[in-house]
Amino acid sequence: MSTATIDLEHHGEHEHHGPPKGLKRWLFSTNHKDIGTMYLIFAFTMLFAGGLSAMAIRVELFLPGLQLLEPDLYNNLVTNHALIMIFGAVMPAAAGLANWMIPLMIGAPDMALPRLNNLSFWILPAAATMLILSFIVPFFPGGGTQINTGWTIYPPLSVQVGMSMDFLIFALHMLGISSVLASINIIVTIFNMRVPNMTMMRMPIFVWTWLVTAFLLILVIPVLAGGITMLLFDRHFGTSFFNAAGGGDPVLFQHLFWFFGHPEVYILILPSMGVLASVVPTFSRKPLFGYSSLVGAMIAIMIIGMVVWAHHQYTIGMSLGAVSYFMIGTIIISIPVGLMVFNYIATMWRGAMTFETPMLFAIGILLMFSFGGLTGIMLAVVPADMQYHDSMFVVAHFHYVLMPGAVFGLFAGVFYWLPKWTGHMYDEKLAKLFFWINVISFNITFFPQHFIGLAGMPRRIVDYHAMFTEFNVISSIGGIVFGLSHLLLLYIVIKTVRGGKQAENKAWEGAKGLEWELPSPPPFHSWTTPPKLAAS
Amino acid sequence: MSSAAHHGPTDYYIPDSSPWPIVAMLSIFLMLSGTALTINAVGAGVWMVLAGFVLLMVMFYGWFSVVIKENLADRYNEQVDGSFRQGMFWFIASEVFFFLSFFGALYYIRDIALPWLGGEGYLGVTHEILYKQFEAMWPSAGPGQLGGEFKPMGAWGIPALNTLILLTSGATVTWAHWGLKEHNQKKLVWGLAATIALGLIFVAMQAYEYYHAYGELNLTLKSGVYGSTFYMLTGFHGFHVTMGTVMLMVILVRAMKSHFSPHNHFAFEAVAWYWHFVDVVWLGLFVFVYWL
Amino acid sequence: MAAISKRLGALSVFSLLAGWAGTAGAEMALNFPEPAAGVAQEIYDIHMLTSAIATVLLVIIFAFVGYSLYYHRKSRGYRADQRFHETWFGQWSWIIVPILVLGIDLTIAGSAQKTLEKVWEVPKGEDLLDVKVIGHQWWWEYEYLDHSVEIDGKPKPVRVESRYLPEDQAGEDTAGYLRAVDNPLVLPVGKKVRFLHTSADVLHAFWVPELAVKKDAIPGYVTETWVDLTREGRFSGQCAELCGTWHSRMPIEVEVVAEAKFKAWMEGQKQTMLAAAAEAAMDKDWTMEELMEKGRANYNTKCASCHQINGKGLPPAFPALTGGAIVTGPIPAHLDIVLNGKAGTAMVAWNTLTDLELASIITYERNAWGNDTGDLVQPRDIKAARTLAVK
Ligand code: HEA
Ligand code: HEA
Ligand code: CUA
Ligand SMILES: [Cu+2]
User: What is the pLDDT of residues A365-380, one digit of tens each?
Assistant: First the structure.
């Protein structure tokens, strides 16, 4: 790394080698690493906020009867839990990884559009404020009723809700704007900022996953925006998009929502799948298996994922032809996803594995995400979904793909790159302890939910029949342990930031990639001169 | 900023820290939360919207001034220019999908929902049980005939004229672009001026059309799904035309100040793309909203 | 295929655990309940097949990962095979794996499609009992479209209103906590039934696990499902689409009885309806006591889920009626909100109630809980208000 020389002519008074000082560094930042750090901190905060509401949900469901929460407050918490976790925790965390790692991985000086990058981040806290307002406005006099619709905000129920629904709609608009701007930036960075030798087919898979994710975001977020705009007009300006009396159809909203909502689940999972492509080869000490088929699989997921949305709506009364189509389309997704899982397992096969924490999480993902995916295939089977739909079985399915799929992937990424970011090794013993508590309590929380779902417990209910008690008790106990275990994570991260064994440039023995050529932590401006990539 | 990337136009320009993104965030927050309050009849909302709007204008002015200055100081190399271009391209792509959601809604209502209500296909039982009297045809205000009797908007009056206007404006903006490439300042300025004039005429005619629809056709936002889709699609399009016209005005001013050179005029092209996009959307509107 | 699926079914985690629970004899259940309809049996079978396939696949994945973790770990001295991806397997796996997965997919989709064709569409040209199922916030209404009585010269389908019963009001023979309703849906065994689902306000979904059909009730649209009932019994279900505050208190009880019993029940139902109609048609002046007594009963069943028995409501969702501006103000405004409801809120138009019911409820509201307006509203006032509303 050459130290950067300074061009005095261009900026006399702006001279500084390191980052700007004080608040300005963060508020006005144009630095991909600082912005990445802010994304990660924000996501972590939101994980706790969303987790706190999950804890309230689990406490309420601990026993039958109204324990703690009024029904509307319960549903309000469920709504907020889902939105905060998805839009506040998982997506920003993935965006944080993208911000930190993509420029390092492709040898770029920064993101392509640094000021826009700052805007995409800073809209998030504003959006989160709006989301929280939507939660608390009803507690003020004249604030109207609480949001009791779930995160899917289906009309006509969402038309009944008071002013807080408008805050929610605008919060979603802002979250959407943030995601679209971030996606534009990421796509442009990837297309325009790679070091000369790095062809598309030599990019790290993590970069590929984010490219596909960003495409998906640009294609589907505007459709959600359109849908909620129509909802806003139906609520306040007398249109009848979702009102049969005027010739509309409440189901139209569901189509618009899930046209966004299904691709959204791949938006959540793909970056984590990308982390695996870095972690698994490193700790297997063996090249990634099936690079091009991974790329192909991702593109297939993007395309098929866009045309199967109605599997969330099997019960709305579609024709036989329509449900057959959506069923087969959905099941077919197991081919590309299966190929991804297979490639990771084949990467481990005949490797020389060690089991540091990122690798433990990676293995956890492979096993438990597969389980969640397989229950997904069960859900895709229309006649059986007549029974599963809107039951706790669905809740179990999506927490298996979301927690050990998306969130574990992010945890794996955090542990994998933490030495690079902070310059310190984390406490491996504590981290392993965290993994084991996490993985075991997760399964205690969500495995039983499959059974109560099959036995007939609907989701989104504040109170349930006594026959579901035993499993809910288990699930709640597991849930609280699971929640508390994240305090350990917080402790580990803070401890690592503040000190620890100095990390080498290449923190892991088997690690490959441009990011490991830079010092740990990397200088404020990473690749001021493009690195040379060997011709393959 | 110590980046070697500043060494002149061969390096990628990384801007210094900038206050404008935060200002943009504040203005969006103020405007949206203000709107939420206003539509629920909370008085303070209007002031928040206004403050947000002022802030937005300040932000645009400030942010773009910086960018223009940097550009004039020759900080942007071709790679940076490429980033801007690609960025604009994907932004327009996202807008396309925003409009697609409304076209999709129109399609769904006309070809799926209304036929069901009228007794066709798998959900035909709906008609048999709930709406024996209702006959589904387009335009429709639904079985409840919400908003009362209305007349639909014909295609061959103002809308056809507007199509012509927008198509012409697409040509004039291209003509201006040729002028720019040929270093022909006059052609550039007059081409832009003509485009702006056409844009303004378009918006004015659209406003007159709304006036006519409300006053004489009893076609309102509340006229069932026809009114809903009609105003939503044409309204958002009209909003985009207005935005495009304002952007063209800014470009005109910059053109008159000779900000552009035949090889460096991203801002001009971005606005031209945007204008063509608005044009294409209109063609879709003309065919699916007015004509068919 | 069927034989294989049974074998696999026996292997699956779900059936193993279900067996375990069976021996444990607890009320706790682990799997779908025993089907009570032919279509439910079909659905049960396809569920067992897919869960079996899923279980087997999961076991295979665990086996491969487990083997690899154990034998290919560094601490055991295993040296990574750097050229693995260049073997023939590495070269061709991108096509072998998808073909294998496609095969399994088609197996699943093929059997699912067969089941789907059997259960999805209502059989044509058969004699089905039509039951219209209307979801309300938060109760169910059932109309037997094939059975009607003549009232005012017009045929009116036999109607059942089915509401949640709080624990203290539920009898011994009801399904228990959160499951008890005042009037179950009664159906004859051995008969094919077509349900026509719709809703009066927001989305609901009719779900009885033993019957396995679930279909959303969409306001302004009608969807249909059908079942062929195979055994008698009392089956509990629940609303399965989030419909607001009391979504968790929208139980369903279905009583499947022998044909003869069904006929007798239907006769009784018709008599009750005729008697109620006759009472409502009486052109007489009701006294305050009569109206208050009827009003309390009607209010407590129909309005109290929102406005509460004590009239205090649950603000801000449901306004209190005690001392409310409308309830203690001019009568026409009171009639107006009850007859026409308020668009965009949970307060629907209650104009399907009879004049007598409405008169009693409104009288009750204006005089109960210390409202004491002394106003007496007679059925003919309601009739007048209705004709006004039509104009
Ligand atoms: C990260 C998020 C995520 C992911 C990745 C998935 C992945 C999948 N999901 Fe899931 N899903 C959700 C999040 C996710 N889902 C959420 C949040 C909901 C609920 C939303 C709500 O209502 O609130 C939901 C709901 C949901 C439903 C609706 C249920 C209902 O409401 O009735 C369905 C139905 O088809 C479904 C199916 C699938 C399928 C087929 C996949 C597939 O992509 C899975 C593919 C993976 C595998 C199959 C495993 C690996 C493959 C192999 C090991 C190869 C061998 C496999 C075979 C041969 C089958 N999901
Ligand atoms: C990425 C998305 C995501 C994530 C990570 C989670 C995480 C969790 N979810 Fe979430 N969930 C959803 C997405 C997600 N969920 C969605 C989309 C829905 C559907 C909503 C709807 O129906 O509309 C849902 C619904 C849902 C329900 C069903 C509610 C219902 O239908 O009635 C339940 C019930 O158990 C639940 C539980 C949990 C739990 C226990 C966790 C745990 O993983 C949480 C872990 C906890 C933490 C990370 C917190 C960190 C620690 C602390 C705060 C300190 C500890 C404090 C104490 C213990 C007091 N979730
Ligand atoms: Cu009715 Cu839920
Ligand atoms: Cu989906």
Answer: 999 999 999 999 999 9
Q: Does C9 score more than 80 pLDDT? A: no
Cβ atoms of A284 and A352 within 8 Å: the answer is yes
Report CB contact under 8 Å: A315, C216: yes
User: Mean pLDDT, 10 residues at a time, over chain A (536 residues)?
Assistant: 35 51 86 94 96 95 86 94 96 96 92 94 96 92 88 93 94 96 97 90 95 96 96 94 93 96 96 96 93 95 95 93 95 96 94 94 96 96 94 96 94 95 94 96 95 93 90 94 96 92 88 88 82 69
Which ipTM score applies to this complex? Answer: 0.92
Q: Measured from the CA of A377, which atom of ligand 1 is nearest? A: 40
CATH code reported for the domain at C282-390: 1.10.760.10
In SS3 terms, A115-135 reads as HHHHHHHHHHHHHHHHHHHHH
Interface test with B, best of C122, C146, C222 (most B CBs within 10 A): C222
Q: Between A289, A320, A466, which is nearest C116 by CB?
A: A320
In chain C, domain spans: 38-70+83-119, 129-277, 282-390
Touching A: which chains, 3+ CB pairs < 8 A? Answer: B, C
Task: Identify residue A167 by its one-letter amino acid code.
Answer: F
Contact C196 B129 (CB under 8 A): yes
C141 Cβ below 6 A of ligand 3? no
Lookup result for tokens 């208000």: C385
Residues linked to residue C204 through DSSP beta bridges, in sequence order: C217
**Residue ranges in A389-518 assigned as alpha helix (H):** 392-401, 408-422, 428-455, 469-498
Q: Is the CB of C247 under 6 A from ligand 3?
A: yes
pLDDT of residue A18: 67
Distance from the C220 Cα atom to the nearest Cα atom in chain B, whole angstroms? 8
Cβ–Cβ < 8 Å for B3, A2: no
Closest CA to A157 of B151, C138, B77, C29: C138
- How confident is the model over A206-261, as pLDDT tens digits? 999 999 999 999 999 999 999 999 999 999 999 999 999 999 999 999 999 999 99
A401 Cβ inside 6 Å of ligand 1: yes
Task: Report helix, strand or coil for A51.
Answer: helix
Contacts of B42 in chain A (CB under 8 A): 163
List the residue whose alpha carbon is closest to atom 21 of ligand 2: A150
Residues C208, C172: contact at Cβ < 8 Å? no
Equal fold, C129-277 vs C282-390: no
Of A106, A104, A87, whose CA–CA distance to A33 is shortest? A104
**For chain C, how far is it from start to end, CA to CA, in angstroms?**
65
The protein residues having their C-beta less than 5 angstroms from ligand 4 (an ion) are A 262
* Beta carbons of B40 and A221 less than 8 Å apart: no
CATH superfamily for domain C129-277: Cupredoxins -  blue copper proteins (2.60.40.420)
Name the closest ligand to CA C140.
3
The two structure tokens encoding residue A4: 């950067």
Task: Name the closest ligand to CA A479.
Answer: 2
Neighbours of B92 (CB within 10 A): 15
- Determine the distance separating the centroid of ligand 4 and the alpha carbon of A413, expressed in angstroms: 25
Which residues on B lie below 8 Å from A236 (Cβ)? Answer: 39
What mean pLDDT is predicted for residues C285-289?
Answer: 86
Give percent above pLDDT 70 in chain C. 91
Determine the residue of chain B that is closest to A234 in CA distance: B228
The candidate with the shortest Cα–Cα distance to A445, out of A409, A480, A404, is: A480
For chain C, the 3-state helix, strand and coil shares in percent, each to the nearest 5, are 45, 20, 35
Structure confidence by residue, pLDDT tens digits, C167-213: 777 766 666 788 888 899 999 999 899 999 999 999 999 999 999 88
d(CA B289, CA A55): 49
